[in-house]
TrEMBL record:
Record flagged with keyword Transmembrane: yes
Top-level class of the enzyme under EC nomenclature: transferase
Matching Pfam families: HAMP, HATPase_c, HisKA
Domain Histidine kinase: start-end pairs: 268-484
PROSITE patterns found in the cross-reference section: HAMP (PS50885), HIS_KIN (PS50109)
InterPro entries reported in the protein's UniProt record: HAMP_dom, HATPase_C_sf, HATPase_dom, His_kinase_dom, HisK_dim/P_dom, HisK_dim/P_sf, Sig_transdc_His_kin-like_C
Catalysed reactions, semicolon-separated: ATP + protein L-histidine = ADP + protein N-phospho-L-histidine
A GO MF label: phosphorelay sensor kinase activity
Entry-linked SMART domains: HAMP, HATPase_c, HisKA
Keywords (A to Z) from UniProt: Kinase, Membrane, Phosphoprotein, Transferase, Transmembrane, Transmembrane helix, Two-component regulatory system
Name of the molecule in the record: histidine kinase
Listed GO CC annotations: plasma membrane
Transmembrane segments: none
């Protein structure tokens, strides 16, 4: 069974551990003390009773006539009982089949057959504690012996005297001991909880400091350090944390320096390549115009150079765009536009209108404040990616989705009917220069198109996800926030409209 969350904390566990240790210690100590005190109380009472009982019996035994008769046994039992009037002794004297008690009609029910037999076979006093009718009593049996001359071994006379005395006083003393142990246990537990709180505070203070420091580092403050106090294990932990934090800070700083150098290098190279590429593009344009008068092999070579020059130009432009995102220099030039008209213009400018089916709202219905150039890049990259890697039919949908608490959002979906995106590739489709094993053939893509698309979407405050359709094919979904007053009434959420 899983413990509740509040019982899994270190503070609670320390308190419970200290309380359990204190409880076990208190109960063990109290139990041992009670046991020893109980034995001492009962032993002292028992020894005192047996000693006085023997003295009184010895003092009165010489008055008995031997062998005794019934009257003699009764007189003897009464005299022994009267010798301790304050103790309420009850005495039974026996000889053979004769017996007499100090009180008339006393059944002497506390006397057990085992004790009676033991007295008959021994020369020393025998005792037993019994409980009768809820009252604890001490029963002592003493055989009466005689010797014919001093120094001779005493012989059993056949007479025995039994004493029963209530131990109510001793019971009260034992009950008082139990109460004292109980009263001592509660303060011990309270002291243990107080000590546990103090110990937990001392242990948890550096643990809390470590937790705050770890959260601070997770938030990016890598210069966070802990103060090291003492030389215990927690101090060693704090010292190890500081060493780890220092090493991590140095490693991250070095990585950032390397990343900055790499970004600067890419930006510088891209910028330097633009001038010669512009000249090369101008030359290839001239060669393309003259290709009809060139030989077949020369025309093929000219076409290849022109295509590769265009690919290189696109790659340099993409690198320049990425470098602006990395440098934080990319900005939005917002304008309120008709999104459906912008999408149609993007498709028409690239001659994709006949290759891509559209589900767009009517003109003038869906308007929003976006950057027209960046919206064009988003749509062009997604549709171009579907044309290169997917299969027809390819469809583009544009509609509005209402997000509770976030306002309306324009949704652009690009769907194809190809094999879809492998599951192991999905997490990386927006990574720079990433190509799956199935797509490592040379294509006209730079490997930066989807990364640039994702950056443009994020720049608008939106989101983009890639997935696979249940019926087959990939789907890319873009959401871009819109101003509420930029969306006209009458367009249902998720509505679809065919372009005329």
């Amino acid at each position: 069974m899983k413990l509740p969350l509040f019982l899994r904390g270190l503070r609670v566990r320390l308190l419970v551990a200290f309380a359990l240790v204190a409880a076990v210690s208190a109960l063990t100590t109290g139990g041992l003390a009670f046991r020893e005190a109980r034995i001492a109380v009962l032993q002292q009472s028992q020894d005192d009773v047996i000693k006085r009982f023997r003295e009184h019996v010895n003092a009165l035994a010489h008055r008995l006539s031997y062998p005794p008769d019934q009257q003699g046994l009764a007189t003897f039992a009464a005299e022994v009982a009267r010798s301790e009037p304050s103790q309420n002794w009850r005495v039974l004297a026996t000889y053979g089949d004769l017996s007499a008690t100090s009180a008339p009609n006393d059944s002497f029910a506390e006397l057990t057959p085992a004790l009676r037999d033991a007295v008959g076979s021994r020369r020393a006093a025998v005792f037993q504690r019994v409980s009768h009718n809820g009252v604890s009593s001490l029963v002592v049996g003493l055989p009466i012996t005689f010797a014919n001359s001093p120094g001779e071994t005493p012989e059993l006379s056949g007479m025995a005297v039994f004493l029963t005395i209530s131990q109510v006083y001793e019971q009260d003393a034992v009950a008082a001991l139990v109460g004292a142990v109980e009263r001592a246990t509660l303060p011990a537990l309270a002291v243990a909880v107080l000590l546990a709180l103090l110990a937990a505070r001392g242990v948890l203070r550096p643990v809390r400091a470590l937790r705050h420091a770890t959260r601070s580092m997770a938030e990016g403050r890598l210069d966070t350090r802990l103060s090291v106090n003492g030389s215990d294990e927690l101090a060693d932990l704090s010292h190890a944390f500081n060493e780890t934090a220092a090493a991590l800070e140095e490693s991250v700083a070095e990585l950032r320096r390397m990343e900055a150098r790499a970004r600067r290098f890419a930006a510088d190279v891209s910028h330097e390549l633009r001038t010669p590429l512009a000249a090369m593009a101008a030359v290839t344009d001239v060669l393309d115009e003259e290709a009809t008068v060139l030989g077949a092999d020369t025309a093929t070579a000219v076409g290849l150079i022109s295509e590769e020059t265009r690919r290189l130009t696109r790659l340099v432009n993409d690198l320049m765009e990425i470098s602006r995102f990395d440098a934080g220099a990319a900005d939005l030039h917002l304008d309120e536009i008709d999104l459906a008209e912008s999408v149609q213009r993007t498709l028409a400018s690239r001659a994709w209108s006949t290759e891509v089916g559209t589900d767009l709202p009517p003109p003038g219905v869906l308007r929003g404040q976006v950057d027209p150039r960046r919206l064009d890049v988003i749509v062009a990259n997604l549709v171009g990616n579907a044309l290169r890697h997917g299969e027809p039919p390819i469809r583009l949908r544009l509609y509005v989705r209402e997000r509770p608490g976030a306002g309306p959002r324009a949704v652009i979906e690009v769907l194809d009917s190809g094999p879809g995106i492998p599951e192991d590739v999905l997490p990386h489709v927006f990574d720079r220069f990433y190509k799956s094993d199935a797509a490592r053939t040379r294509t006209e893509g730079s490997g930066l198109g989807l990364a640039i698309t994702a950056e443009n979407v994020r720049l608008h405050g939106g989101g983009i996800v890639a997935g696979n359709r249940p019926e087959g094919g990939a789907v890319f979904t873009v959401e871009i926030p819109l101003l509420r007053e930029g969306v006209l009434a009458g367009l249902p959420e998720g509505g679809e409209h065919d372009t005329p």
